[in-house]
Structure formats: C-alpha cells, structure tokens
Amino acid sequence: MMSCYLPQRAEILEVIDETPNIKTFVLKPERKFEFKPGQFVELTVAGVGEAPFAIASSPFQEQLEITIMRTFDPSLGRYGQVTSAIHQMKEGQVVGIRGPYGNSYPVEASIGKDVLIVGGGIGLSTLRSFLLTLLQDRKKYGRIVLFYGARTPADLAFRREYESWKQRGAEVHITVDVGTAGWTGNVGVVTTLFDRVKLDFKREIAVVCGPPIMIRFTVEKLLQVGYRPENIYVSLERKMRCGIGKCAHCNIGHYYVCKDGPIFSYQQVKDIPEWW
User: Fold this and answer.
1) How buried is 1 (Cβ within 10 angstroms: 0-12 exposed, 13-18 middle, 19+ buried)?
2) Which of the residues 69, 191, 219, 266 could staple to 122 if both were Cys, CB 3.0 to 4.6 A apart?
C-alpha cells in the first residue's frame, strides 16, 4: 500500500486556458488513478509546495483533469505560491499528486430523481465531475439542471462544453453578475435563475459549490422554495489544507472537512455557525 504522504508523479499532457485566471491541467498519473466525483487530490509543485484541488474530470476517463484558479491572498498582499507556480507550467512537465481524498457527491442517492447543480466561479470544476458522471448513464436520472454563474462572461469556465452538456441531456442555465458588450444571457447573481426555471423540489437533489457567500445565499434560496435540508449538498473544500486531518485547518464543529467531507448535506452542518 502506498503511503498517504507520498505523491506519485503525473505528467502534464495539456494546459487549457479557461479564463484569464483559471486553467485546466490534463494529467497522466504514473499509476492507475481511481476516484469518485467530489473527491480531491493534494497537488505538489516541486520546490514550491502543495495544495488541495478538486478533481474536475469524469471518473470514467483515463486522464485526470484539475482546474486551478490563480488565487490572491489579500491578507498577505500576494498571489498564492502553488497556484502561481503551476500556472507557469507547460505540457511535458511533471507535478506530484496524492489521493484521492474525501467523500463524494450523492450519485446513488440521485438515481430516479431530478438533480439541480448550482455552481459559482471555480466551483464548477468539482461539479463538472458530478455532472459528467450523471450524463455517463443519463437514463438513470430525471431532469439534470445546471445553474452556473460568474462575475462576467470572461470569467465563465468550460464555455466550450455547454452545448455538449445540453446535447447529452442536461439543462444549462448561465448568468453573470455584470454583462459586457455582446452578452445576451441572464444578468444577475445565480439565485436569480430560480425565477426563470420551474423546479420540482419535492423530488430533487440539489448540489452547490462556489464562493462562500454564494453557497450561503443559494442554500437559503433552496430552503425558501421548499428543498429539505437532507436533500441539499454543499462542498466546503475551500477550508482544506493537508488533506488527511493532521493540520486542523479545516475543522468546523466536530468535523474535519478533508476527512468527513468535503461534501456535506446541509442537514449535517446547518447548526454549525461557521459552516459556510
């Protein structure tokens, strides 16, 4: 058995520019890598450090895809070292990965039900893995509805795939906070899409990932329209650091997000003040 502290090498096969500050890295691990949608890896850049990142690809494909935003830490006044370093890497270079870690989205619980997926910004990366898993065996599920929002049209990730998702049976609804010249879609935060699309919340699973404030207000909206807490799932991966429950950085209430999550039902966390 491999040590949970020891990364394996993974070659960068392709780098895809998603937005001005988001890139998708297509990786080829040196050994077979199996995972479930919602899980994450610790990615290492030699000589710089490591950080946790959600897996964005389908578990049914051989290559691993990690979508990474170059982050800025206002408290330090600088960009993140790991995200800045990997954004400078090219095809043919090698990173380290260890994992997968964490639990997964409710794939089995979604069978026979409608599924609403709500994403904001980089949060669509982990949700993409869940969406592609559902579309792999489309007939098992009811409606599959995606609500996705970003700050501007230029900040929308995976734009090249929206039509493919529609063709495979997903309903895709996009919004931006601020429209720009040529934008003809919805303008407003992601929760405004609830006013445009009729949903049957009585038989739906809802899955949410995005910036903390977006998650909070989306959950409030879901509860308002009738979703039950046990049918709402949130990803809290932003709190993680070491990935194996040693650093305690991701502790909320009696949970460690990296070990007990990063996917939680709202029922699990609703009474924890700092959950979001």
Assistant:
1) exposed
2) 69
Name the DSSP class of 55.
Answer: B
Q: Give the CATH architecture of domain 108-235.
A: 3-Layer(aba) Sandwich (3.40)
Low-confidence ranges of the chain (pLDDT < 70): 1-4
By three-state DSSP, how is residue 239 classified?
helix
Instruction: Give SS3 for 34.
Output: coil
Q: Which amino acid is at 188?
A: G
According to the model, what pLDDT value does residue 244 have? 85
- The answer to whether 41 and 53 are in contact (CB under 8 A) is yes
Q: CA nearest 61: which of 100, 21, 32, 104?
A: 32
pTM here?
0.95
C-alpha 227/C-alpha 84 separation (Å) is: 39
CATH of segment(s) 8-100: 2.40.30.10
- For tokens 């850049």, what's the residue? 45
- Contacts with 190 (C-beta within 8 Å, 6 or more apart), sequence order: 118, 119, 120, 147, 148, 149, 175, 210, 214, 218
Look at residue 1 in the predicted model and tell me its pLDDT: 47
What does R_g of the chain's alpha carbons equal in angstroms?
18
Residues 6+ apart with CB under 8 A from 152: 176, 177, 178, 179, 180
Separation of alpha carbons 100 and 217, rounded Å? 30
